[in-house]
Amino acid sequence: MEAPAISGDRPATIGPGRLILVVGPSGAGKDTLLGLARAACADDSSIVFPRRVVTREASSFEDNEQLSLDAFQQARSQGDFAVHWEAHGHCYALSRAIDDDIRARRTVVANVSRTVIEALRRAYADVVVILITAPAEILAERLAVRARSSDGRLADRLGRAVDDAATAPDVTIANVGSVEQHARELVRVIKGGKGCVGEAPRSGERQCRSSQR
After folding, report:
1. Cα-flanking dihedrals φ and ψ of residue 98, to 5°?
2. Is 153 buried (19+), middle (13-18) or exposed (0-12) by CB count in 10 A?
3. Which residues in 27-168 belong to E strands, given as ranges?
4. What residue ranges in 45-122 does DSSP mark as E strands?
5. pLDDT number for residue 197
């Protein structure tokens, strides 16, 4: 698998806008919460939700721009991507247009792989990482219901849902219970709020506390 990469020909860090990275295991519900957050922020032109470029088939669960592998490789060679990575045999990228948004003081919110966090923290001046997660049994149930052919083996997807500490999140949302409530938590962070850590203890109760690093 090719290592994630940041495009060249850029300054040490890009700012002053914020880059918010939404990460988490497959089945955590990232796209659901992002869709609700996007709708809640629709009237705010200072907040941008760029579409990811992907080489796998389009899905009703996501808002992605699909490219063939050849077209993806051509765009990458032309420097069209701010960052690109591979996962589960597919290629992903964010358009270089996000750099212009961040230079214009906008907030860019993107669903990315945890493998690119370190590189993006170096490339951008103000990066916030939001981890969206859920218990393993819930992840398995959601992936089984989704049953998307391009997902590959379920075991492989669940196998990557470990070592969340490696993402060094600034905010963690345990996406169990009310998706509307969790979407509000996400919007609060996007708009500059303190954010919460959502936990789901064995009793099923949910706790929320500040999680600023």
Report:
1. -65, -25
2. exposed
3. 47-48, 52-54, 64-66, 81-87, 90-95, 107-111, 127-133
4. 47-48, 52-54, 64-66, 81-87, 90-95, 107-111
5. 46
* Per-residue CA distances from 28 to 5, 132, 151 (Å): 25, 6, 14
Q: What is the pLDDT of residues 17-51, one digit of tens each?
A: 999 999 988 888 898 899 999 999 999 999 999 99
Structure tokens at 1: 């698998």
- Is 88 buried (19+), middle (13-18) or exposed (0-12) by CB count in 10 A? middle
Give the pLDDT of residue 63: 73
**pTM, entire model:** 0.78
Q: Using one digit for the tens of pLDDT, what is the confidence trace for 131-154?
A: 998 888 888 887 777 655 455 554
Strands 47-48 and 107-111: parallel
What is the rounded distance in angstroms from the CA atom of residue 74 to the CA atom of residue 56?
16
Q: Domain 5-209 is of which CATH architecture?
A: 3-Layer(aba) Sandwich (3.40)
Give the three-state DSSP class for 151.
Answer: helix
* Cβ atoms 152, 143 nearer than 8 A: no
